[in-house]
């Protein structure tokens, strides 16, 4: 039985997946692991590209795109380890990161915890996050500004399998985006710890796996797919996780807080209500 399972969901990920897998298999690590890839019906030969280069990877091919949340849940069902490492295809692990991640899991093995490394930009190596804050309307906040981490980015997140199950796994109705916010929100409600690992570094092309994420200064581009699921799922998470008393006064104002579609989305502008138009 492997010490942990690395779970990656792909959808037309041929641009990134080989670099991601090379960064995994290039690690020197004393523990054992399995890599499970759930492919959401790619049309760019992603599964074949993986199988041609990495024979040990377990590849599951879906006949339709069931969404990021459901695909991760399906991969978990066949995993052979008690520890899960969710990883996006548009990431690369830096040297020594797997050892440090698993050591952290062992250190907190008797705790209800969600563990996550620091993320740096795929192209520039600039700091992105090590956990993300959330404002009262459900929008992400740079944790350096909020001074509080609310959720672990599912682009790179570790959790024990039984804890993941106890949290209800990812909400499949969300389909894409916001499933990590919901999971972390439930974790807070159930007394879990969110444990950032500032010393562990991965590279992430934020939004790259769904065709956006290009940067120009402090701006990051989006597309209609990401915008639609982002806005819809913010609302779903509010409805699911707030009490009705909070919803009564938050919902009337929440629709006024979304940034406009007329320009690329600025991560920090989304985070701060006072900066939104």
Characterize the main sheet.
9 strands, mixed
Alpha carbon gyration radius: 18 Å
**Domain module tally:** 1
| Overall pLDDT score | 87
Shape verdict: globular
Annotation, overall tally of beta strands: 14
Provide the succession of SSEs.
Answer: EHEHEHEEHEEEEHEHHEEEHHEH
Question: Concise description?
Answer:
With 277 residues, the protein is of the alpha/beta class.
How does this structure look, described?
The chain is an alpha/beta fold. It has a single domain, classed as Spore Coat Polysaccharide Biosynthesis Protein SpsA, Chain A (Alpha-Beta Complex). It has 10 helices and 14 strands. The strands form 3 sheets. Strands 1, 2, 3, 4, 5, 6, 7, 10 and 11 form a 9-stranded mixed beta sheet that branches. A 3-stranded antiparallel beta sheet has the order 12-13-14. Helix 7 runs parallel beside helix 8. The C terminus is likely disordered.
């Amino acid at each position: 039985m492997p010490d942990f399972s690395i779970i990656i969901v792909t959808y037309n990920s041929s641009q990134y997946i080989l670099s991601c897998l090379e960064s995994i298999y290039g690690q020197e690590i004393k523990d054992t692991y399995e890599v499970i890839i759930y492919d959401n019906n790619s049309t760019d030969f992603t599964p074949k590209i993986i199988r041609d280069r990495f024979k040990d990877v377990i590849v599951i091919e879906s006949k339709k795109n069931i969404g990021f949340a459901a695909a991760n849940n399906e991969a978990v069902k066949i995993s052979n380890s008690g520890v899960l490492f969710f990883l996006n295809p548009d990431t690369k692990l830096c040297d020594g990161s797997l050892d440090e991640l698993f050591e952290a899991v062992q250190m907190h093995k008797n705790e209800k915890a969600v563990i996550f490394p620091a993320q740096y930009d795929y192209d520039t190596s600039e700091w992105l996050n090590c956990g993300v804050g959330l404002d009262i309307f459900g929008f992400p906040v740079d944790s350096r500004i909020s001074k509080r981490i609310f959720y672990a980015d599912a682009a790179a997140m570790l959790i024990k399998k039984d804890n993941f199950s106890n949290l209800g796994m990812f909400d499949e109705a969300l389909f894409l985006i916001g499933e990590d916010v919901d999971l972390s929100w439930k974790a807070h409600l159930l007394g879990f710890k969110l444990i950032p690992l500032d010393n562990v570094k991965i590279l992430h092309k934020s939004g790259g796996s769904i065709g956006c994420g290009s940067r120009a200064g402090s701006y990051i581009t989006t597309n209609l797919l990401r915008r639609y699921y982002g806005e819809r799922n913010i609302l779903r998470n509010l409805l699911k996780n707030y009490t009705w008393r909070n919803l009564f006064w938050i919902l009337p104002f929440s629709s006024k807080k979304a940034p406009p579609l007329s320009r690329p989305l600025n991560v920090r502008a989304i985070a701060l209500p006072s900066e939104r138009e």
